[in-house]
Amino acid sequence: MAREWNAPIYNSQRWRKVAKAYAASQHYICERCHNQSFIGTGKEPHWIVHHKQHLTADNVQDDNIVYGWDNLELLCIYCHNAVHAPQGTGRTCQFDENGNLVGILGEK
Ligand SMILES: [Zn+2]
Ligand SMILES: [Zn+2]
User: Fold this and answer.
1) In which domain, by residue range, is 93 found?
2) Distance CA 61, CA 54 (A)
3) What spacing in Å lies between the alpha carbon of 61 and ligand 2's midpoint?
4) Which of 40, 74, 91, 97 has the fewest other C-beta atoms within 10 Å?
């Protein structure tokens, strides 16, 4: 489902700045699974700055919700997908002790 109302935020300079600063403050490590596999790869970042309190049409005007660090969480793309797919995609990430992604269970 398209969410036109929040697209301008994610494309804004301000959001990018905040997201980048927040990700740097977490050392680009996923806060849930501590996945670090995206560090230093030089590839597209696989982390996402997620809003703990999901953005809705009602709270999107609230600077504290959108830009406040208290509402932000740095997630790898797998954890982020899981957060936004409460029904579950049936996928579980597996990591080695160094935080490298070694496999995705249930991936088709
Ligand atoms: Zn999110
Ligand atoms: Zn993760």
Assistant:
1) 7-105
2) 13
3) 28
4) 97
